[in-house]
Amino acid sequence: MRSTTLSAAPRRGRRHLGIMTLLLLALTVASAGGARAIRSLAQEGSPARGHAQVVAQGVVSLPAGSTVWRVAYQQAGAMDVAQAKQRPLGFVLADQGPIILSQADGPTFLDPGEAALVRPTTDQRRATIGQRPVGYYAIDMVPAGDAADIGEGVAVFASSPFDPPSGSEPHDLNLVRDVVKTDETSTLPRGDGPTLVLATTGSLSVESADGDAAPLRVGEAAVFDGEITIRGVGAADAVFVAALIGQAVTDGAAPGTPIASPIASPVASSGNGVIAVTIFRCPADSSPEDFNPDACAPDRDAADLQIAIVGSGANQRSADDAELAAATLTWSDLADGEYLLSATDFADGVNRFFIPGLDGLNGSPEAGYPSGLNEGYRVPLTAQSSRYTLDAYAFAGEESSATPVAGTASVAYQVYTCPPGLTLDTASPTSCPEITGDAIVALSADRLPTPLREADATRDSANRPAWTNLAPDTYVFSHAPAPGYTTYAIPESSTVTVLPDGSGYSITLERGAPAIVLQVYDLQPAAEPTTIPAPAEPAPEPEPTLAPEPEPEPTFIPEPEPTVAPEPPPPPPPPADTDGDGLSDAEEIEIYGTDPGLADTDGDGYSDFGEVFNGSDPLDPASVPAGAE
What we know:
The chain is mainly beta.
C-alpha cells in the first residue's frame, strides 16, 4: 500500500416465473460449466475479473515526473449555472444522481455508478438534469504539486507521489467497478503502477499480494501495488471502483484513441449487442430441477422479463421495449456490459423462471428465480460475445398463489452538524444546525439493485428527505460525515441498531409499521482543555536546632514556623455566555456583533454559534448555513 486513507419496472399484480436455455452464437451450452468457460474467454486480457466490470477506459499518454492519484467529491450544478472548465486526466464517477458531461465531441449521460474517462486538458461542463445539485467523484491523475488544487468540493484522498511508467508509448487506463457481498472477494491484477481503490458504498478489507492491507469505508480510498484482493466485510453489499494503469499500447494506436467503449451511456448512441429470449411454459408437476424441455410449450404471456446493467441499473429495457415475434423477446443495439435478466411479472399459475447454464445474481440459479429486480441471470455482452439466443422456462411453485408485498414503508432522515464536544447524549436539533443538501447517504438491502442515494429521496410532509415505497425487509443506512467531522451517530431503537462492525445502522421495516425518521448527528471531538499547573509542593519543615550547653541549665532556641508555599490562584471562571449559544458574551460583543442575550440574533432559526461555525452571517436572516433551505 502506498499511502493511507483520509478519513457507495412496473408490475401488473400477477406473479410469474421464467426459465431459459442459453444458446451462445447459435450453440447450446448444456451445463453451467460451459457458460463459465465462455465468460472466462470473453474477459481474457481485461482487468475486470469475475462479475467486475470495466466502466470506463481509454488509451492515454500519462503525466511525466512526480504524480499522484487524487479523489475529490464535487457537485454538478444545474445546466444554466454549470461552467465548462479545463479538467485533468482521470475519471468522472456519477454518485448521487445522473449527470451530463458536455465537451467538444458531444454530451455524455452518466447514471449513478457509471463513469467516463477524462482526457487531459479537456474543456468539460458537468451538470445535473434538474435544478438540484448532485454529487459525483472526480478521480484524477495529476502532478504532485497539484494534489491540493481541487477547486470547489471536498478533498477525499491524495496518494504519495509516484513516477508513472516511463517512455513515450501511451497506456491503457481503466476504471473497474464491482459489488461484493459479506465475505465475498474480488481480485484485481497487478497494474503498471499503483492502483487506486475507492469504496463508494459499504465496508471493505483490501490486501495486496505484498501483504499491505487497509480497511476502507464509504468515501475512503487508498493505493496499492501488485495484485489486490478486496473483501466485503459489512452487513450490506459493498461497492468499489479501482483505477488501474494498464499495459503500454505499441500497436500503432494513436494516443487518446479508445480501444473499447465505456459502459457510460453516450447521449443518442447505442451498441450492437443482442439478447433474444423465447419463453416456454412448463407443466405444473415439473420443476427446474426435474423437467423435460420438450414438454414445455412456447408462451409469451407466461412471464414478463427485463434487462439492465448489473450494479448500476443502466440500459434498463422492459418487455415492452423488446421486439416481439411469437414467444420471443429481442432486445437489440445494446452496449457492452454484464446484464441482469430478471422477471417483473408472471401469468397465473407460475412463479419462477429458469435458464440452464447461466450464472445468477443472488439466490440459487439452479432453482430458478421469482420476480424481483435484484435477482436473476447474468448475461455478459462483450465484443467477443455480443449475441445471445436464450430459452426461458416458466414453472409453478409453492408460492404461485401468493400476493406480492406492496412497498409501503418509508425511511426519512435529517443530518445535523454538531459543535465540538457534543455527543449523541447531548446533541439535539436545537444545538446542531441541520444540513438539507449534499449529504452523502446510502440505503442498501439485498432486494435493491443498487443502494438508494440522496437523489432517490423525495420530500415527506415535514419536508424531510425520505425513501418511500419500501418493502418490509432489513436495510442498512450508511453516511459519510461532513468535512471536518470524524464520525456520526443515530439514536437507536428496537428497529434501528448500529452494526457490529460500525459500518452503518441496521433498519428493520415491518409491514404496517409507521415511517422511520433517522436523526443523524455528525460529531467532532471537543477542543483540548487548558491545563492549570499543579501547585508547588510546600517547603519541608527544618529540623529543630539546639543551642550549646555551657550553662548548667540548657537553653533551647524556639522552633521556627514552617514555611508553606502560597495557595495557587483559583482557575479563571469560564467566559460568560448569557444566552448559552456556545459563543461567549465577549465574542458576541467584540467580534461578531451579535446579541449576547439572544441565542439566535437574526431570528432565522439557526443559533449564532451554528451560523458562525458553518460560515453564514448571524446578523442576516437571509444568510443561513450552507445547504439549509
